[in-house]
Amino acid sequence: MSNSKQHSGVNSYRYRYWEHPKNERVQKLPVSQLKPFEEQPFKVLLDESMEELVESIKQSGVLSPIVARPHKDGGYEILSGHRRVKACEMAGIKNVPVIVKNIDDDTAAILLVDSNLQRENILPSEKAYAYRMKLEAMKRQGKRTDITSAQIGQKLDRKTSKDILAEQTGESRNQIQRYIRLTELIDPLLNLVDEKRLPLNAAVELSYLGSKAQSQVAESIERNETVPSIEQSAKIRRCAEDGLISSKMIDKILREQKTEKIRITLKEDKLRKYFPQDFTPKQMEDTIIELIKNWAKTRKRNEPER
């Protein structure tokens, strides 16, 4: 797009459409015609970030076009830009630039997930449902004989959809599976994961419980004002598998003292300057342990008697 066609506000568009760098037509469409994607896994939060987006749009307009496709009931279904559309509604913007794509359900789901996974802050629940949505779409596409896209094919390399998704996201296959397991959680437990109160691996263990048992766990967490560790969650899961699950049993497990593992990582490049150049990592470790021992002894001697 040439400089003569650039603009500062959404309402100042002088052209009905123009050519996008990818040779896709960008149209000016009413916000009222744009509808959320069905089963949209990403939340549109009215938080501080949204307020900043609203102010940005008021000042500079929508700099990146919304991506949508024709909706079966009329209007257009948003594939990328749910937050921008909401911000436009809040800012009183009536028309926005939109790229309209005529694509099927599975391709639309993949595009939706890919465009939103680029965001900086993604909740575990969003990632969980997004991974599941994309993986299911990729599997369905892989079963079709008319698909040749590298997005899902790869059959000659004998890669599964999960292998390809792992490569695209930078997550391991196991980590993707852990996230997808979160979609089996009831909302109160999933919210605890989003709030960073319930560890991911602990939540995965609880995801194997039935909804009734999960509700009992959620009630026990509220009652005891504590969340289960990974070990406690695994114990609750074993009790459920053995048919011994009950609110009383869950309370008992949650009241057990947690054994927290402490992991401290000291980077060699930060430590090296304090040691002779010929010291090996083992010698450095032994020296650090000895210094800590001496510090503990000195601290104990200086403690006042009780």
Structure, described:
A six-stranded mixed beta sheet has the order 1-2-6-4-5-3. It folds into three domains: 7-102, Conserved hypothetical protein from pyrococcus furiosus pfu- 392566-001, ParB domain (Alpha-Beta Complex), CATH 3.90.1530; 104-183, no CATH class; 185-257, no CATH class. β4 and β5 (76-80) form a beta hairpin. By secondary structure, it is an alpha/beta fold. It is built from 13 helices and six strands. The radius of gyration is 27 Å and the shape is extended. It has helices at 48-60, 82-91, 105-116, 124-142, 161-169, 173-181, 187-194, 200-206, 211-224, 230-241, 247-254, 268-271, 281-302, and strands at residues 17-19, 25-30, 34-35, 66-70, 76-80, 95-100. The relative contact order is 0.07.
Brief overview:
The chain has 306 residues and is an alpha/beta fold.
Note the main attributes of this structure:
alpha/beta; Conserved hypothetical protein from pyrococcus furiosus pfu- 392566-001, ParB domain; 13 helices; extended
